[in-house]
């Protein structure tokens, strides 16, 4: 991830990061502008969960799917030449 440098507004790249808690991450950045080279930290945290995954409450037996056909050569048996690709008779 990248952020803008607070000093020169150029792009700063991530040097390292660590989780402070399960939902809070501290990240160290360094400016890519060699004349600036500002190093700074940010805190990234969870704001809102938009949608939670559904919880499975009962065991539903899985259906076994029939095996899929595989292509054995480059185009497979379903490939056919169009009329203009056929060799002249």
Automatic annotation (TrEMBL):
Q: Where is the Zinc finger Ogr/Delta-type domain positioned along the sequence? A: 4-49
Compositionally skewed regions (Basic and acidic residues) per UniProt: 55-66
Query: Where is the chain membrane-spanning?
Result: none
Q: Where is the composition biased (Polar residues)?
A: 68-89
Which InterPro entries does the UniProt record give?
Answer: Znf_Ogr/Delta
Q: Which Pfam families match?
A: Ogr_Delta
For the region Disordered, what residue ranges are annotated? Answer: 55-89
Superkingdom, natural source: Bacteria
The identity of this protein, by name, is: Ogr/Delta-like zinc finger
């Amino acid at each position: 991830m990248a952020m803008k440098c607070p000093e020169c507004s150029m792009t700063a790249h991530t040097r390292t990061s660590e989780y402070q808690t399960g939902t809070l991450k501290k990240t160290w950045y360094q400016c890519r502008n060699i004349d600036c080279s500002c190093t700074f930290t940010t805190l990234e945290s969870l704001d809102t969960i938009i949608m939670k995954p559904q919880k499975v409450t009962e065991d539903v037996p899985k259906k076994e799917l029939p095996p899929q056909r595989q292509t054995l050569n480059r185009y497979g048996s379903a490939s056919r030449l169009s009329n203009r690709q056929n060799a002249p008779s």
